Amino acid sequence: MTAALAVAAGSILALSAPAPAAPPDEGQRTGPVQFWAKDLGSCKAEFAIENRTNVTTYTIDWRIDDEVPDGRDIGVGFPIWRTGDPNMASKADSPTWPDEVPPNTPENRTMVSDRDPVTATYVQDLKNLNGWNPGLPNPEADTHTISYRMVLGPPGNNGQTPTETPEWIGDRQWHTVTVTGCNPTTPGGGSLEELFGS
User: pTM value?
Assistant: First the structure.
């Protein structure tokens, strides 16, 4: 009887124990093109692209909360969201491909991925969106979840690296960051905007 109770108590404890917290999403932190985002508070997020290639066109796409589930069709073969709002593209030191070097061919590999890193950062203020309509979803919420991914950029070396693995970074996988401070509340329960005006 005592053993059975002990087993039952252990089962109850196992069921009531909180699940371990998911590790924070750090973006894509491996490979020649790395990217990530962080919350700055005050309803702002900072995106970064660290580029070790000589290609400037690796570009982040992003969306807020669960907006427009089907994205937009701009003729690239897959849906996109807020790319171009503004254009969050990578930077690279000159000479850059394909503007300043010859075409990339199997015989002459002019696209490289062993440069010193060049980092481009972009701050997005969710309260002051521009470009693509619509505006901020769920405007009364204090926090918003931004999903972001590397959406554009050539695969490199005509599709393959010297080890025969694709150099496309991230495979368009979504990463997330939670942006805070968008509609903070006062101790009395109202928003700061209600208290002080917009």
Answer: 0.79
In terms of DSSP bridges, do strands 144-152 and 175-179 run parallel, antiparallel, or are they unpaired? antiparallel
> Letter for the amino acid at 76?
V
The torsion angles phi and psi of 195, rounded to 5 degrees, stand at -75, -45
Enumerate the β-bridge partners of residue 122. 47
d(CA 181, CA 39): 10
Q: What is the pLDDT of residues 53-111, one digit of tens each?
A: 999 999 999 999 988 778 888 888 888 898 877 789 999 999 999 999 999 988 999 99
Q: For the chain, how big is the Rg over CA atoms in Å?
A: 23
Containing 144, the helix (H) or strand (E) segment is: strand 144-152
100, 104, 108, 114: CA torsion to nearest 10: 70
Q: Can you point out the beta strands (E) in 115-174?
A: 118-125, 144-152
Q: Which residues contact 118 (CB under 8 A, 6 or more apart)?
A: 50, 51, 52, 90, 91, 92, 93
115 Cβ contact partners less than 8 Å away, ≥ 6 residues apart: 51, 52, 53, 54, 92, 93
What is the C-alpha to C-alpha distance for residues 105 and 108, in angstroms, rounded to an integer?
5
Read off the tokens for 155: 């695969």
